Structure formats: structure tokens, C-alpha cells
């Protein structure tokens, strides 16, 4: 729209310009007769010319009021006749004529030379092209700046989004109760910045919201501002990174200046990873300078401001692992809040939030829908309600019924599986048995840390599920038997897959890494193998102050290395056999547990105890 208008105005300008040009030529130039040079000379010779003005290229003049009949062709005479009374002006294109002055003097014609006034031509030849170029330039710049802010160097106001009132409250964010609890303190702090600072405690400055896309990080940030009733300044990390070095840094400065002027408030930086990727260690080949400058400016600003004023910086990312460690240091984004994928209860709550605006048939059971949407995040569920409403509307229904929901689920699931964001049912089953295996071994072996939680909700990118064990007390020493138990629990997942599916998956990679690590340390560091005895073969500690020096150096022979490998393998193999036997004895429990997990997704420690007691 806007663009069109601009090009129109340029055309108007050009048309107007030429119109003025025409006006100049035809209206304001007095009418004169055009004579050939020979006609002019003839008139001079006959003494009919009153006066002339000799210009560089033309001769202008006036004739005496005498009869021209016979001197000029009839057409020209007529032309003079048409002119007004006493008006006999003419012009003639000048030719090279050295005798002209002599002739004029002889005929006693008044003559003057004139330096022709060329302002008009100057305009034409210089100003007009310049104007056209300026016009084109302005147009291009406007177009550019719409996309990238080329014109807005250092003037970033257009890019900062300020909301005086977000209008979002915690009631709009469902299913992430833990995260909400953690940020509750920030709301209090914003409502009451002085009270917190008064006791000398340090307010948090930066809080990092971590979670996969669509879990509601942006929503939660806005809800915090809404709950506290403070303005919400937001900017996307990617919008800081600009074409020109220095622009992003200026934006950051600007953002903080604006925010501090309206404290208490929240600064929210979305997609922090776009800006805060770890700075490259070596010299860069250019291209990253801008991002680094911007990041440095952000760090400087964060260090520089006083949190007691009540400015809290929130940031969101789904890839915390790639962030520059400097960003995560104390006094910066040192608090991390996990905005996790919702479990079945969470999904039900989120569905309730989004179903508020929709007309549901009475038969619709949100719990049932929540059960069918494993792995969906908040954004997917919002999308689901929307999609179901569209389907119902297409069929002219009065309200959305279960059939619309199932169809919408099928569509969205297909899309998400294609994008690899959802486990298919088979994968989910494998994950459930795997985690059940871990948990069962942990409960079967004495001395294992108790299981506090099992989940088959994918977390982050790597972990498809997890079994969380919490130690009951701080440990300074580990017994050999406890290390062996640990290895067994780690192997539990893999062995459960072996037993149930008679095939194994790649899901145990991390478990096996840790198993090998513990077993190797038992052999080389702790003297816990009969093969190698009480000798430390560890050469890591000696060189820890120079980690890069000769990393491959061993202080034992090739033969010893082989024996170490064999001892490690034996420890793992023995543990494997033990675990296999344990799980085979408890196959019934394993299946019950896995099925319950598939059903409920998350089990707390006490649920686990109960299930195991029941399925004795
Ligand atoms: P993120 O920033 O984590 O990628 P958003 O906050 O942008 O996710 O979420 C996108 C949309 O999905 C939200 O506007 C909201 O409609 C919906 N949504 C996401 N999470 C939730 C939630 N926990 N509760 C309610 N709605 C949610
Ligand atoms: Mg977001
Ligand atoms: Zn595992």
C-alpha cells in the first residue's frame, strides 16, 4: 500500500515538472516570428530592422512598423500581421557571419550582445537527473528499511515492542505449574522492588526460560508482566543482528535506556540463541563481528544496571547448550526456568484455556483428548482446538464434537511426526519399557538411590524419557557394591528392551557411556578389579593443569591397556547378566509398569511403589 503511494507521488512530480516546462515555452515566451537568416539579412539591408539582440545561437529583434509586403514571403507577413499592434518581434537562428556587424552598422540598427541566461537548461541538465536519482534513492531506502532498518541506524524505536499492559495473566498459561511457581518470585519483586533490595539481598537480574518451541515461553514472559502490571519491552534476538556492525549494539543500548526510564518493567529477549551463540574462540573470518559486538553490549548493559530499580531481563531459548557461557554467569542469566512439555494433566488444562472461546458439544471430554495428544506442546493444542473448530464450521455444526477433535488430532499428529517432533507409538513403547527397566532395577537392588520420577515425555532433544533417582543423603564415598548397582540400573533400560522386543534400540547410548565410564574408573582409579589390583592407572589427574599436553600418553604398557579393557568388559558383562536375570524374574512387573507409563506418562516415586506392590 505504502509503496504504491510513494511511486505515485514520484510520477505526479515528474508530470507536474513537464507541465511547468510546457507552460514556460508556450505561455510565457512572447510570440515571435521565425525568420530564416537570409530573410533577416534582407530586412537589414532594406533598413527595416529596428533593433537586434545577438545571442550565442539566435538573433532576436524587432522590425520597424513598415510594409513588409514583397520583402518576405506572404506567410511570414501574415504571421507578423497576426501579432498585436506594434509587435513585430522575430528571431532567427544565427549562422557564422563575420560581416553581420558591418551590415548592422551600415543599416544603423541598434544592436546588443547578450550572455544568454542558461538557468533553465542548467536545471534540465543537472538538477533534474539529480532529483530523479534522489527520488529513486529515497524509494529504495524506504523499501529497504521496511525489512531491515537500513535507515534506522541507531534509532531502534521501531524495533522495540512495548506493551504497557500485556493483558495476559497466569490463568492464560496452563500446564506449566512448576515454571509458574518459579517465576512467582519475579512477579513479587516487580510489584515491590524496594522491599526486596532493602535487606541487602541481591535481586535476580536475568531469568532464562528454557523449553522446546511452543511450550509457552513467550506467553509466560508476557504473563509475568501482566501479573505484575509492568510494561513489557520485547525484542527478538535475531532482530539485533543486523547488516551493519554496530547497529545491534546501538539497539541494545537503546532498549536498556528505554526500559530503565520506565522501571519497573520487563525486558524480554526472545530467541536468545540467535544473539548469544558461543563466541568463536579463534579469529573469525569476519561476519560474526556484529553478533559479538551486540552480545558484548548486552553483557555490559546487564552488568551495568541496578536490579533494585526493578528491571528484570527475561530471555527465552530452546537451545541453552549453545549459549555463550558468559551469558549464564552469576549476575546475568543465572536463573533457569524449565518450561517443560505438558503431561496429561497439563494438556487438559491447556485445552481448557483454549476451549473457552470455542463452542463445544456436551459430549466433548477434554481429558480424553489430552490422553490422545501425547507429546503435544501448548502451541499444538491451541492449534488443535482451532483446527477442530474449523472442521466443525465446515460441516455446519452447531458445536465442536469429539469427531472433529479426533480428525484434527490425526492431522496434527501426522504433521508433527513428519517434522520429527513426535514419537510414533512404537518408539513410545520402546521408551516406556526402557525407562521401566531402569526403575525396576533401581527398586530391586538394595542400596540404589530411590526413584523419584519416571517420565516418557521427551525432554530437550536428546532424552526421550528419563528415570530420576534422588540420593537420600550427600555422599562422599562410594562402595564398590554401590558402583556396581549404579551400573546395573543404567543397564536396566537396555536389558528391558532385549527381553521384551528381542532387539535393541539406539536409546541406550548415554546409559552405556556412563556405564563404561564408571567401570573404567573402577579398574583404573579405584583399584576395584581383581585383574589389575591396587594400582592407579589414571594419568588424567597428573596432567590436569596442562590438559592439552600429549593427550594420548599412557604410563602403562600395551599389555596393561588390554588387561584394563578386559577388566572393564568383565565388570559390565557381569552386571548385564545380573540385570537380565533380575528383569526376567520380574517380567510381569516390567510389563505392568511399562503399560502404566504409556498410559500416564509420568509416575512419581510413590505411584511406582504402589504399582509394584499391586503387581506382585
Ligand atoms: P514459545 O515462545 O515457547 O515458542 P509461545 O509462548 O509463543 O511458545 O506459544 C505459542 C502459543 O501457543 C501461545 O500464544 C498460546 O496460544 C499457546 N500456548 C503455548 N503454551 C501454552 C500454555 N502453557 N498454556 C496455554 N497456551 C499455550
Ligand atoms: Mg516464543
Ligand atoms: Zn536409559
From TrEMBL:
Membrane topology (UniProt): Multi-pass membrane protein
Alphabetical list of NCBIfam families matching this protein: FtsH_fam
SMART domains: AAA
Cofactor note as given: Binds 1 zinc ion per subunit.
Catalytic-site annotation from UniProt: 435
UniProt entry tagged with the keyword Metal-binding: yes
Principal localisation: membrane
Transmembrane segments: 9-28, 123-141
Protein name according to UniProt: ATP-dependent zinc metalloprotease FtsH
Subcellular location: Cell membrane; Membrane
One Gene Ontology biological process: protein catabolic process
Family membership noted in the UniProt record: In the central section; belongs to the AAA ATPase family.
MF (Gene Ontology): ATP binding; ATP hydrolysis activity; ATP-dependent peptidase activity; metalloendopeptidase activity; zinc ion binding
Species of provenance: Tectimicrobiota bacterium
Co-factor requirement: Zn(2+)
EC numbers for this chain: 3.4.24.-
A Pfam short name: AAA
Amino acid at each position: 500500500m505504502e509503496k504504491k503511494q510513494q511511486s505515485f507521488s514520484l510520477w505526479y512530480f515528474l508530470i507536474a515538472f513537464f507541465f511547468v516546462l510546457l507552460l514556460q515555452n508556450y505561455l510565457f515566451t512572447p510570440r515571435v516570428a521565425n525568420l530564416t537568416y537570409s530573410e533577416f539579412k534582407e530586412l537589414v539591408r532594406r533598413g527595416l530592422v529596428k533593433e537586434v539582440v545577438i545571442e550565442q545561437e539566435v538573433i532576436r529583434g524587432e522590425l520597424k512598423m513598415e510594409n513588409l509586403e514583397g520583402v518576405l514571403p506572404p506567410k511570414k507577413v501574415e504571421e507578423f500581421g497576426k501579432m498585436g499592434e506594434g509587435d513585430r518581434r522575430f528571431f532567427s537562428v544565427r549562422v557564422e557571419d563575420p560581416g553581420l556587424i558591418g551590415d548592422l552598422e551600415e543599416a544603423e540598427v541598434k544592436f546588443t550582445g547578450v550572455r544568454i541566461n542558461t538557468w533553465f537548461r542548467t536545471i534540465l541538465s543537472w538538477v533534474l537527473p539529480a532529483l530523479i536519482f534522489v527520488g529513486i534513492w529515497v524509494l529504495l531506502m524506504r523499501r529497504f528499511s521496511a525489512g531491515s532498518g537500513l535507515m534506522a541506524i541507531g534509532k531502534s524505536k521501531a524495533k522495540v515492542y512495548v506493551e504497557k499492559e500485556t493483558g495476559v495473566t497466569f490463568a492464560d498459561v496452563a500446564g506449566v505449574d512448576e515454571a509458574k511457581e518459579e517465576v512467582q518470585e519475579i512477579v513479587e519483586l516487580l510489584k515491590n522492588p524496594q522491599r526486596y533490595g532493602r535487606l541487602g539481598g541481591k535481586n535476580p537480574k536475568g531469568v532464562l526460560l528454557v523449553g522446546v518451541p511452543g511450550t509457552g515461553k513467550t506467553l509466560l514472559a508476557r504473563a509475568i508482566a501482566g501479573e505484575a502490571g509492568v510494561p513489557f519491552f520485547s525484542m527478538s534476538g535475531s532482530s539485533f543482528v543486523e547488516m551493519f556492525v554496530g547497529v545491534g549494539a546501538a539497539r541494545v543500548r537503546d532498549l536498556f535506556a528505554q526500559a530503565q526510564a520506565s522501571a519497573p518493567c520487563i525486558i524480554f529477549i526472545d530467541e536468545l540463541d540467535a544473539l548469544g551463540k558461543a563466541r568463536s574462540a579463534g579469529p573469525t573470518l569476519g561476519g560474526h563481528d556484529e553478533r559479538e559486538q551486540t552480545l558484548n553490549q548486552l553483557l555490559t548493559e546487564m552488568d551495568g544496571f541496578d536490579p533494585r530499580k526493578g528491571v528484570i531481563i527475561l530471555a527465552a531459548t530452546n537451545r541453552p547448550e549453545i549459549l555463550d557461557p558468559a551469558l549464564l554467569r552469576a549476575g546475568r542469566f543465572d536463573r533457569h526456568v524449565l518450561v517443560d512439555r505438558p503431561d496429561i494433566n497439563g494438556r487438559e488444562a491447556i485445552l481448557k484455556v483454549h476451549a473457552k472461546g470455542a463452542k463445544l458439544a456436551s459430549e466433548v471430554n477434554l481429558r480424553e483428548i489430552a490422553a490422545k495428544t501425547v507429546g503435544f506442546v501448548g502451541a499444538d493444542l491451541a492449534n488443535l482446538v482451532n483446527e477442530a473448530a474449523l472442521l466443525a464450521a465446515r460441516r455446519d455444526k452447531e458445536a465442536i464434537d469429539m469427531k472433529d477433535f479426533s480428525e484434527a488430532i490425526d492431522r496434527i499428529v501426522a504433521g508433527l511426526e513428519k517434522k520429527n517432533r513426535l514419537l510414533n507409538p512404537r518408539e513410545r513403547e520402546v521408551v516406556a519399557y526402557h525407562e521401566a527397566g531402569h526403575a525396576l532395577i533401581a527398586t530391586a537392588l538394595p542400596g540404589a538411590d530411590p526413584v523419584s520420577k519416571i517420565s516418557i515425555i521427551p525432554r530437550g532433544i536428546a532424552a526421550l524419557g528419563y528415570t530420576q533417582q534422588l540420593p537420600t543423603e550427600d555422599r562422599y564415598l562410594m562402595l564398590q557394591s554401590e558402583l556396581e548397582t549404579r551400573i546395573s540400573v543404567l543397564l536396566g533400560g537396555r536389558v528391558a528392551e532385549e527381553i521384551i522386543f528381542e532387539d535393541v534400540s539406539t536409546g541406550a547410548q548415554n546409559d552405556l557411556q556412563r556405564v563404561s565410564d564408571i567401570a573404567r574408573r573402577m579398574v583404573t582409579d579405584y583399584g576395584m578389579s581383581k585383574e589389575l589390583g591396587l594400582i592407579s592407572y589414571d594419568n588424567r589427574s597428573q596432567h590436569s593443569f596442562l590438559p592439552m599436553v600429549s593427550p594420548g600418553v599412557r604410563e602403562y604398557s600395551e599389555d596393561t591397556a588390554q588387561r584394563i579393557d578386559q577388566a572393564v568388559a568383565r565388570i559390565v558383562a557381569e552386571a548385564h547378566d545380573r540385570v537380565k536375570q533380575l528383569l526376567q524374574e520380574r517380567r510381569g512387573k516390567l510389563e505392568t509398569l511399562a503399560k502404566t507409563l504409556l498410559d500416564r506418562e509420568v509416575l512419581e516415586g510413590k505411584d511406582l511403589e504402589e504399582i509394584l506392590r499391586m503387581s506382585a
